[in-house]
Structure formats: structure tokens, C-alpha cells
């Protein structure tokens, strides 16, 4: 099998729906995975063209004194202003796409017939067309808000704002090839991952 024949599967869902846990479970089963959030951090690391572009667009006040990106300050800006969010995405997403493509191309299809990229904003930026299949991790919106408040210490209003900038989870579910529900306990999520692993790796 040609290296280019690795089946490209995207993993997505709403914020705080459990994508990272599901990705870790697939990884534990031997599936190669990559995290777009980590690639996005790399794209604006100190010394990168991405960070220089961020500073040029938003100003040096989005940096810590040591020159690293103040992610919380930048997040406060972009989640309150759609134009700023689009500007940041235009800086970061092309490099994330290139890095993801390089990663898939590096895999040996004979060893790994399928690999998974965790891409939170897959549908929002139109990247679903780049993949052979999409897995959506979903939970009830009320559960999503509760988890986000507990995880990040946000207020209810802040959590709703973060969730509100993403495509509604029911729309992501409608467009998915596969869905994993995380409304239940970890054991139930694990069972769903194992069943889907059997589908992806028959």
C-alpha cells in the first residue's frame, strides 16, 4: 500500500465534550494521533513567523514579559470580537494544516492504515473536506457548560460565549460519519471507542 493511502480520520466536537480523552483512548489502542491544538501552540512559539504576525496584528500587550504569548489575554480579545478571531485563525490555521499534512504523509500505510487528527474547529474552518471520515465527540450542551466551568474556572456567561462561537454540537453530529457520546461514564465512552476501533481497523 502506498504511504499516501493512510486513511485520514478527523476527530472533532465542541469544547469540553471529551475529545482529548477519546483521542487518548484511540492512541492507547495503537492508532497514531495528532493534536491540532498542540500544532497551533507550536505555530506561535517564540521565534516563529506566526508569533511575529500575532504581535503585528494585536500588539505587544499580548505577550508575557519573557516574550511568550499570553494566551489568556489573546483569548479574551478574540472570543469577544469575531473579526479578531478570524484574523488569528488566518495566521494559525494554515500552518496547522501544513503540519497535519506533513504528519499524515510521514506515516507508513502498511503499518498504520488509519490515523486520527484531533481538530476542534474542523467544520468551522471547512477542513472536513480534507478527511476521509469524521468522528464527532458530543455531549449534552448543559453537560458541556458544566464541564467547561469546572475545568477552566469560567463563569457561566464565559462558558456560553466560548461554546457559542463554535458550530452547534447537534449540527456537528448531523454531519459526522461516526459519533461518540460522552454523556455517560468513562466505561461507556471506552466501549464506544473500542467498537469504533473495530470498524476503523476490521
Give keywords.
51% helix, 202 residues, 5 strands, alpha/beta, Rossmann fold, 9 helices
What features would you describe in this structure?
With 202 residues, this protein is of the alpha/beta class. It has two domains: 1-32 and 110-202, P-loop containing nucleotide triphosphate hydrolases (Rossmann fold, 3-Layer(aba) Sandwich), CATH 3.40.50.300; 39-106, no CATH class. 51% of the residues lie in helices and 12% in strands. It is built from nine helices and five strands, in the order βαβααααββαααβα. Strands 2-3-1-4-5 form a five-stranded parallel β-sheet, with helices on both faces. Helix 2 crosses helix 5, helix 3 packs antiparallel against helix 5 (82-106) and helix 6 crosses helix 7. The protein is globular and about 50 Å long.
**Coarse morphology:** globular
Summarize the main sheet: 5 strands, parallel
Identify the CATH class of the largest domain. Alpha Beta
Q: Sketch the topology as an H/E string, one letter per element.
A: EHEHHHHEEHHHEH
Taken together, the total number of domains comes to 2
Kindly state the mean pLDDT as a whole number? 93
Strand order of the largest sheet: 2-3-1-4-5
Beta-strand percentage range: 5-15%
CATH third-level topology of the largest domain? Rossmann fold
Give the helix proportion (percent range). 40-55%
Q: Could you give the distance between the termini?
A: 16 Å
Number of strands: 5
Reported CATH architecture of the largest domain: 3-Layer(aba) Sandwich
Low-confidence stretches: none
Radius of gyration: 18 Å
Structural class: alpha/beta
So, the CATH homologous superfamily of the largest domain?
A: P-loop containing nucleotide triphosphate hydrolases
- Counted by DSSP, the helix tally is 9
Amino acid at each position: 500500500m502506498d504511504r499516501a493511502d493512510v486513511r485520514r480520520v478527523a476527530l472533532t466536537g465542541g469544547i469540553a465534550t471529551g475529545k482529548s480523552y477519546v483521542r487518548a483512548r484511540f492512541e492507547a489502542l495503537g492508532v497514531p494521533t495528532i493534536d491540532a491544538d498542540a500544532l497551533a501552540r507550536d505555530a506561535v512559539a517564540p521565534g516563529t513567523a506566526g508569533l511575529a504576525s500575532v504581535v503585528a496584528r494585536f500588539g505587544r500587550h499580548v505577550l508575557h514579559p519573557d516574550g511568550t504569548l499570553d494566551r489568556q489575554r489573546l483569548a479574551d480579545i478574540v472570543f469577544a470580537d469575531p473579526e479578531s478571531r478570524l484574523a488569528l485563525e488566518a495566521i494559525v490555521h494554515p500552518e496547522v494544516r501544513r503540519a497535519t499534512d506533513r504528519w499524515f504523509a510521514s506515516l507508513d500505510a502498511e503499518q498504520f492504515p488509519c490515523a486520527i487528527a484531533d481538530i476542534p474547529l474542523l467544520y468551522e474552518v471547512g477542513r472536513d473536506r480534507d478527511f476521509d471520515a469524521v468522528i464527532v465527540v458530543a455531549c449534552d450542551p448543559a453537560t458541556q457548560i458544566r464541564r467547561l466551568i469546572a475545568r477552566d474556572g469560567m463563569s457561566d456567561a464565559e462558558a456560553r460565549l466560548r461554546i457559542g462561537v463554535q458550530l452547534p454540537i447537534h449540527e456537528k453530529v448531523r454531519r459526522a460519519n461516526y459519533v461518540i457520546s460522552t454523556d455517560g461514564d468513562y466505561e461507556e465512552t471506552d466501549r464506544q471507542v473500542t467498537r469504533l476501533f473495530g470498524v476503523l481497523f476490521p
